[in-house]
Design a protein that fits this description.
This protein is α+β, with helices and mostly antiparallel strands and 437 residues long. Helix content is 52%, strand content 11%. The protein folds into 2 domains: 24-134 and 293-436, Orthogonal Bundle (MetI-like fold); 158-284, Immunoglobulin-like. It is built from 14 helices and 10 strands.
């Protein structure tokens, strides 16, 4: 009788359990199992899901350059991102364990993971903007750059005549032949904005040659309606404050002069011969233009850095929790035995943290393979081919352009196959841990 009552009780317990589990099973079936099976099914059909193509989608997947680039970038993410974030998280966790305000420290570093990943990508796209006036990173670099290489008074200006030679360093030079009657050598400049012209500038002068003298004018060779370049015309102003150097034919310096308000300069007591007039490159040097962080060659490393910014807090908190749970007696025993702090960390702390580091590493590896929203947010459309990853390529193939549902499904299945071994490894590790307990 007792046995029969116990059996009924167990049957009732199973029924209650089934009632509570059934909604979860329905939801998992509708939103996980069915889409997965439907994706596998669609991967064997054509663009619109009507024509059966067998394995053609899987063959075609590896034949176009965009997909090959996506596989290569996903490999980079998988090889670099988990190791980098786990290492940084471990270092931060060890440091945080030794400071009094570690709770605030962890909170600040954990905040980025609370922001939507695509929003983080958009934020960092602004940070990475190539213009120092817009991008925070280039603005910070621009401070020392502007000191080392300041912008010239007439930045970006160019000579108006082909007789002016542009040096490798950006300087301007013009040959001048000096006879007994002297010589006049003018240098006209284009692309000088009105706002760059000094308020002391006046109408450029037309100079006549003087015996034993080189004279000339450096002026803004631009005015509305002007047709002839290289000729000083009314309403064309001189450019003051420009240092003009005179160099002999053998390259030795003869002297230097600074242009006046009318742009004129003069070298006296010059013997007949061939000379070069030079305008230093610093006068025409443009402001530092910034690093193109989101260009084709740097967009993937830049995105990985953003991934580190987002996930370092996660690694810090999880590894920090593992550190807090370590048996301090074991660590103290190692110190009493004469081990240095580095030996304690390498031979005691790291082995004890192995399971925690494994959880973090596997989680980050799966996230690296599934990386999608960060790339969409941070990579401009012009470089999305260069920043492409498998998940992004799946979306672009299936839902943009002509929308090839079959090929997109094949890419999704390929991504799932890549993640399966990692998931299996993770499950095996969990079972081993449970067995130890």
């Amino acid at each position: 009788m007792a046995t029969r009552t116990e059996a009924k009780r167990r049957q009732g317990s199973r029924l209650y359990a089934a009632v509570f589990v059934l909604p979860a099973l329905v939801i998992l079936g509708a939103f996980v199992l069915y889409p997965a099976l439907k994706t596998i099914y669609d991967s064997f059909f054509g663009r619109f899901g009507e024509e059966f193509v067998g394995l053609d989608n899987y063959r075609q997947m590896f034949e176009f350059d965009r997909m090959r680039k996506a596989i290569f970038n996903s490999f980079l993410w998988t090889a670099i991102f988990p190791v980098l974030v786990t290492t940084v998280g471990l270092v931060l966790a060890v440091l945080a364990d030794k400071i009094k305000w570690k709770t605030a420290f962890k909170l600040v570093l954990f905040l980025p993971i609370a922001i939507a990943v695509m929003s983080s990508g958009i934020i960092w796209r602004l940070v990475y903007d190539a213009s120092p006036d817009l991008g925070l990173l280039n603005a910070a670099i621009n401070v020392p750059a502007s000191i080392v290489s300041p912008e010239g008074d007439y930045a970006g200006a160019v000579a108006s005549l082909d007789t002016v030679i542009i040096g490798d360093d950006g300087s301007l030079s013009q040959p001048v032949e000096v006879g007994p009657e002297g010589a006049v050598s003018n240098i006209g400049l284009l692309r000088v904005p009105v706002e760059d012209i000094s308020q002391s500038s006046v109408q450029a002068v037309i100079l006549a040659p003087k015996q034993g003298t080189i004279t000339g004018v450096v002026w803004r060779d631009t005015r509305p309606g002007a047709d002839e370049k290289g000729v000083v015309e009314p309403e064309e102003v001189g450019l003051p404050g420009i240092t003009v150097k005179l160099v002999s034919a053998d390259g030795s310096p003869v002297g230097s002069a600074t242009t006046g308000n009318d742009g004129s300069y003069e070298f006296e007591d010059v013997a007949p011969g061939t000379y070069q007039l030079e305008v230093n490159a610093s006068v025409l040097q443009e402001a530092w233009g910034g690093v193109t962080w989101l260009g084709p060659s740097l967009v993937t490393p830049a995105a990985i850095i953003v991934g580190l910014w987002i996930w370092a807090g996660f690694a810090l908190v999880v590894i920090g929790a593992g550190l807090a749970s370590l048996d301090r007696a074991v660590l103290e025993a190692a110190r009493v035995d004469g081990a240095t702090e580095w030996q304690v960390f390498r031979r005691v702390t790291l082995p004890l943290l192995g399971p925690v580091l494994g959880v973090v590493f596997v989680t980050l590896t799966i996230n690296a393979l599934k990386m999608f929203d960060l790339i969409v947010g941070i990579a401009p459309g012009s470089v999305q081919d260069d920043a492409n990853v498998i998940a992004l390529e799946m979306w672009r193939t299936a839902f943009t352009g002509l929308g090839d549902r079959g090929l997109g499904s094949a890419i999704a299945v390929f991504l799932f196959v890549l993640i399966l071994p990692i998931m299996a490894l993770n499950l095996r590790r969990f079972r081993i841990e449970e067995g130890r307990r």
